[in-house]
Specification:
mainly alpha
C-alpha cells in the first residue's frame, strides 16, 4: 500500500478523533452553500460575477494591444538605429526594449491581474459560503475592493508565496507513486503531455484556491493558510486531479473552438489593414485570432475551471481534519514547506 493510500484511509476514518471540530484538528469552521462542482454550477457563478470577467478581459486586451505597440516601437527603433547609427546600437535597443521592458511590463501586469483575481475570488468565496455578497446590498466591485484593501497584507503575501507554492507542488507531483489509479480513463497516464497538463492546471489554480480558503476561514495568517491548504490538497489530490483531468480536456477543446470561431472576424479585420499588412493576411489573421482568443480564454474560460476547483476543494475539506501524516510527509519532501511552518 502506498503512502497515498495510508493517508486517504486516515482521512476517511478521521484518525478516531472526537466529533468536535477543534479537537479533531479541523482548523476552520465556515458555512458552505454551494457543494456541486459541476460545469453548470461553475458557469452560473461566473455569470453572476461577469463584471470581474469583463474587467479581466479589459486588462488583458489593453495589455495585449500595448504589447503589440511596444514590440513595434522596439523593432522600429532598432531598424532606425541600425540604419542611421550602428547595427550594434540597434540590437542593444531591441534587446533592452524586449527583455528589460518586457520583464517590467510583465511583472506589473501579473500584479494587476492578481488584484483583479483576488477581488473576484473574494466575491466567489462569499457566494460559495454565504450565498450572497456581503450584506446583500453591496456591489461586487465595492465588496471585492473592500476585502482586498482590508486584507492587503495577506493578498500581497499570497502573491509573493505563489512561487513557493508552485515549488512545493512540483516536488509533490514528482513524488507521486502513480496516476493510473486516479485517472478515469485506463492508460491515460501514459500520455505524458496530458498528465503534465493536468498537474500544471492543478498548480495554476491552487494559489487562488488557497486565497479562497484563507478568506473563508477568516484569514489573519496567510502562512498558516498556505500550509493548511497545501496539506489539504495533498490529502485530497486524488479527487482534485480527477476533476482536473476533465477540466484540462474541456478547456483545451473550448480554446481551440474559440480560436476557430474568431478566425472569421479576424479575417474580416485584416481586409481593412494597410496594403503592406494585407500581403501577410493569413499570418495576421491567425495572430489576431490567437491574441483575442487567449484574452477571452483567460477572462471567461479559465475562471470557470477555477470555480470548479474552488467548490471541489471547499466541499472535500468541509468536515475533514488535518492529517499529521501528510504534514510530516511534506516536511520531509520539501524544505520550502518547512519554511512555511517556521
Amino acid at each position: 500500500m502506498s503512502h497515498m493510500d495510508v493517508a486517504d484511509d486516515a482521512v476517511r476514518t478521521g484518525d478516531g478523533l472526537p466529533d468536535d471540530s477543534n479537537e479533531r484538528g479541523i482548523p476552520h469552521s465556515y458555512p458552505l452553500v454551494v457543494r456541486d462542482h459541476g460545469l453548470a454550477t461553475a458557469l452560473g457563478l461566473l455569470i453572476k460575477t461577469l463584471p470581474y470577467a469583463f474587467a479581466r478581459w479589459g486588462v488583458l486586451l489593453g495589455s495585449a494591444t500595448a504589447c503589440v505597440i511596444w514590440i513595434g516601437c522596439g523593432a522600429g527603433g532598432a531598424a532606425w538605429l541600425g540604419t542611421h547609427v550602428s547595427m550594434t546600437f540597434g540590437v542593444c535597443w531591441l534587446v533592452g526594449v524586449l527583455l528589460v521592458g518586457g520583464w517590467i511590463w510583465g511583472a506589473a501586469l501579473r500584479y494587476v491581474l492578481h488584484l483583479v483575481a483576488c477581488g473576484h475570488v473574494a466575491v466567489l468565496t462569499e457566494l460559495i459560503t454565504q450565498g450572497r455578497i456581503g450584506n446583500g446590498d453591496e456591489g461586487q466591485f465595492a465588496y471585492g475592493r473592500r476585502i482586498v484593501v482590508a486584507r492587503f497584507g495577506e493578498v500581497a503575501a499570497l502573491f509573493g508565496l505563489g512561487v513557493l507554492v508552485r515549488d512545493i507542488l512540483r516536488a509533490f507531483h514528482n513524488a507521486l507513486d502513480t496516476l493510473d489509479e486516479w485517472l478515469p480513463t485506463p492508460g491515460v497516464s501514459t500520455i505524458v503531455g496530458l498528465v503534465n497538463a493536468v498537474l500544471a492546471a492543478a498548480t495554476r489554480y491552487l494559489d487562488k484556491v488557497i486565497l479562497s480558503y484563507d478568506l473563508a476561514r477568516g484569514g489573519g495568517d496567510p502562512w498558516r493558510s498556505v500550509q493548511d491548504g497545501l496539506v489539504y490538497y495533498c490529502q485530497n489530490a486524488s479527487p482534485i486531479l480527477k476533476t482536473a483531468v476533465w477540466m484540462v480536456v474541456v478547456e483545451r477543446v473550448l480554446s481551440v473552438l474559440l480560436w476557430l470561431l474568431l478566425l472569421v472576424p479576424a479575417g474580416l479585420a485584416t481586409t481593412v489593414l494597410p496594403e503592406a499588412a494585407r500581403d501577410y493576411g493569413a499570418l495576421v489573421t491567425v495572430l489576431v485570432a490567437a491574441l483575442v482568443a487567449s484574452t477571452l480564454r483567460a477572462a471567461f474560460i479559465t475562471p470557470v475551471f477555477l470555480i470548479c476547483i474552488m467548490i471541489r476543494f471547499h466541499a472535500l475539506i468541509e468536515e475533514q481534519p488535518i492529517n499529521a501524516t501528510w504534514v510530516g510527509y511534506l516536511d520531509r519532501l520539501s524544505d520550502k514547506f518547512r519554511q512555511l511552518r517556521r
